[in-house]
Write a structure and sequence with these properties.
Structural class of chain A: alpha/beta
Keywords (chain B): ATP-binding, Cytoplasm, Ligase, Nucleotide-binding, Purine biosynthesis
CATH superfamily of chain B: Phosphoribosylformylglycinamidine synthase subunit PurS
Structural class of chain B: alpha+beta
CATH class of chain B: Alpha Beta
Distance between the termini of chain A: 16 Å
Radius of gyration of chain B: 16 Å
Number of strands of chain B: 3
Pathway (chain B): Purine metabolism; IMP biosynthesis via de novo pathway; 5-amino-1-(5-phospho-D-ribosyl)imidazole from N(2)-formyl-N(1)-(5-phospho-D-ribosyl)glycinamide: step 1/2
InterPro entries (chain B): PurS (IPR003850), PurS-like_sf (IPR036604)
Strand order of the largest sheet of chain A: 2-1-3-4-11-10-9-6-7
Number of helices of chain B: 2
Helix content of chain B: 25-40%
Pfam families (chain B): PurS
Distance between the termini of chain B: 5 Å
Oligomer: heterodimer
Order of helices and strands of chain A: EHEEHEHEEEEHEEEH
Largest sheet of chain B: 3 strands, antiparallel
Helix content of chain A: 10-25%
CATH superfamily of chain A: Class I glutamine amidotransferase (GATase) domain
Strand content of chain B: 25-35%
Subcellular location (chain B): Cytoplasm
CATH topology of chain A: Rossmann fold
Number of domains of chain B: 1
Chain lengths: ~230, ~80
């Protein structure tokens, strides 16, 4: 399986994503620059956190028009696995690959700490190794992570089982319905504010994020008929 | 022509910055201050004299990039 980690000017979690793939599933992984115009070689695309283009105008607003994003769009439409983490999530919503928008935390503070997450949908390409309702520990690090959708859209998200993670206990940013992560209708594109790539070993404070990566390898192997790992 | 573009947070979306500024104004004794909303103001020079075309282009700019219409409204004025 081949992973791509997209690198924008201002990405700063790209190395963490790369290392997380190496350390959790040991599959092939490349950094792919924002100017790239071909992602056909990759099975999974990770859009990492950071401050792409300095967060100018809005988080992810400029990044959505980087050349590589047309390829990410194509990959998503082709059913390939796409995961946006933090700024990556903001970019995917700006690009229209995921519904909603991320706005300023209601506390106005940059929140950087461990949070509990409830796995609300354990059927997506990135969450199949978790069990439904499981609470996992993953760190957050964002100032603009308050997920917003209109009531109508929220009802649609619930009806389509597109809410992937909710904050367990305190909501750190004021997001609608305690949402921490969502997916597209097909479930191959997932976006989340917390950072699973920072939680892949106990020495980092939690290893609960590792299953995001084993999940996508499972999903890819199932799709390609190879033996699944758990 | 010159365009002035205003991007504001939708009324039904929480504006924590606006709330903080409202609180600060109250602290300063400006008790007449009601709701405060913070937005963005952009000045854009356009290399055209065709008003209709400029309006159409500005609308596209706002929809595509300048505003995120999930959470923001926009309006613009044209001069010259």
């Amino acid at each position: 399986m081949k992973f791509a980690v997209i690198v924008f000017p201002g990405s700063n979690c790209d190395i963490d994503c790369y290392k997380a793939v190496e350390d959790t599933v040991g599959e092939s992984v490349d950094y792919v620059f924002h100017t790239a115009t071909d992602l056909s070689a990759y099975d999974a695309i990770l859009v990492p956190g950071g401050f792409s283009y300095g967060d100018y105008l809005r988080c992810g607003a400029i990044a959505q028009f980087a050349p590589v994003m047309a390829e990410v769009q194509k990959a998503a439409e082709a059913g390939k696995f796409v995961l946006g983490i933090c700024n990556g999530f903001q970019i995917l919503t700006e690009a229209g690959l995921l519904p909603g928008a991320l706005i300023r935390n209601n506390s106005l503070k940059f929140r950087c700490h461990q949070v509990g997450l409830v796995v609300e949908n354990a059927t997506t390409g990135f969450t199949n190794a978790y069990s439904q309702g499981e609470v996992i520990q993953i760190p957050i690090a964002h100032g603009e992570g308050s997920y917003f959708v209109e009531d109508e859209q929220l009802a649609a998200l619930k009806a389509n089982n597109q809410i992937v993670f909710r904050y367990a206990g305190d909501n750190p940013n004021g997001s609608v319905d305690d949402i921490a992560g969502v997916c597209n209708e097909a479930g191959n594109v997932v976006g989340m504010m917390p950072h699973p790539e920072r939680a892949v070993k106990e020495i980092l404070g939690s290893a609960d994020g590792a299953k995001m990566f084993t999940s996508v390898l499972n999903a890819w192997r199932e799709r390609n008929g190879a033996a699944s790992i758990r | 022509m010159k365009a002035k573009v205003y991007v504001t947070i939708k009324q039904n979306v929480l504006d924590p910055q606006g709330n903080a500024v409202q609180g600060a104004l109250h602290t300063l004794g400006f008790n007449e201050v009601g709701k405060v909303r913070i937005g963005k103001y952009l000045e854009i020079d356009l290399d055209t004299n065709d008003r209709a075309q400029a309006e159409e282009k500005l609308k596209t700019m706002c929809e595509k990039l300048l505003a995120n219409t999930v959470v923001e409204d926009y309006r613009f004025e044209l001069e010259g």
